[in-house]
Design brief:
It is an enzyme of class 3 (hydrolase). Keywords: Coiled coil, Cytoplasm, Exonuclease, Hydrolase, Nuclease. InterPro entries: Exonuc_VII_S, Exonuc_VII_ssu_sf. The chain is mostly helical. The protein has helices at residues 8-24, 29-62. It has one domain. It has two helices and no strands. Helix 1 (8-24) runs antiparallel to helix 2 (29-62).
């Protein structure tokens, strides 16, 4: 996961992909931990992106 090339949409799509794999039981227990860690990082990235966007929108309306 490269944050400098990562967009909100790509991160969200990857989270959905991970969730689908976990729900389908497609991955073994060895991959489970890594996938959960990756998903947690992606969720954090998306939350931060949303906060930054919200702040930018607020700033734009204050000007």
């Amino acid at each position: 996961m490269e944050n400098e090339n990562l967009s909100y949409d790509k991160a969200l799509a990857r989270i959905e992909e991970i969730v689908n794999k976990l729900e389908a039981g497609e991955e073994g227990i060895d991959q489970l931990s890594e996938m959960v860690k990756e998903a947690a990082k992606l969720v954090s990235f998306c939350k931060n992106k949303l906060r930054m966007t919200e702040d930018e929108i607020k700033q734009a309306f204050e000007e």
